[in-house]
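Let us practice reading a record.
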Amino acid sequence: MRSSAWLGLAVAASLTLGATGLPMRSAQAVELQDGQTYFVRPPLLTDATTTQNTTLAWRPTYYFTLTLSEDAGEPLGRIEISQRDGSSAARRIRYSEDTIAFEGTPRNRGNEFTVQETRFDRDNQTVTVIFDSPVPPGTVVTVGLRPERNPRLSGVYLFGVTAYPQAEVAAGQFLGYGRLHFYGRENRRFPFL
């Protein structure tokens, strides 16, 4: 009887103590000496997709899905999505301001997240999406950008995604590239060409 009681205490202690024997704490954000705050574990860019993949298609939605780890250390405050190689007029994309955000994926939508502001920098082809309330750790969030139309040139387009924690001086952490492939209308009619 006594040995099982001690075993129970030992298991409880091992759940609250780390390998060093010190009490485990929940993940805290990393704050550097200059005041910049980083995620302990940055979000993952898990998917990028579009509702229409033909060139010049009007009013598509580009979805970017991020997964925030439980031990992120800070909630997500904003993201930046930058088109790589968007300098030529034929590859350039113009966005409207009616950005959407929701919990889950495009096929499995949950609660909406209110977007406080969407900024578009035409010179750098960068869209900044600022959440009204930060997205908490342990959440899958999808942001939907709504361009006026798809680009004129077919091909693969890369969109760099950078996440910023909700902090007074937030440091961005690059998550990788979302890849969208646009097909010319002529290639859809004659796929063998």
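A brief commentary: The chain has one domain: 27-189.
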